[in-house]
Amino acid sequence: MATTPAPITLPALPWPDNALDPVISANTISFHYGKHHKTYVDNLNKLIPGTEYADMPLEKIVTATAGKADKAGIFNNAAQIWNHTFFWACLTPGGGKPKGELMRAIDRDLGGLDKFKEKFAHDGVAQFGSGWVWLVAYDDDRIGIEKTPDAVTPMAEGKRCLLTIDVWEHAYYLDYQNRRPDFLTAVTGKLLNWDFAMQNFLRSG
Ligand code: FE
Asked: How remote is the CA of residue 142 from the centroid of ligand 1, in Å?
């Protein structure tokens, strides 16, 4: 069966690769985006031609393969592409602060911004091995913090992802070596893009 190149592309970063320095260095971005993220794209483009996933949008590939043991290769690469693209959008130089309805939800469900920062960093550290820590919103608009292993993403479970931090070693080792807590505290305090989180929160189900 003739196959055409799969249409999965590596999205551009939302900022120059030195924009997050010194919290995340240009060197880390060059490996994390230019090697790791790109490799997931290259891998998926080898895995899906000729399959039922060849013409699906990325998000659909993730939801269609989640939890299927025989599709783990496709899921892992597709979900990691989605997770990384989402992660880059969660970061911005200078960060900002949550406002309005989202700030009220943080007060109501997480005990305030300081408690959020503490628990978000804590849960990122507590994720054993590789994975992600997430701020998510549920159908009833309550919000919560979740951690996931490897490529697993709350998006595939129909939850609205508001923010995430990658806690795979490749996310921090060049800048922080084994100090995952320092990486999480710095990113949570200085780089989280609260305007992006608000857009995600206000997006209906
Ligand atoms: Fe990563």
From this structure: 27
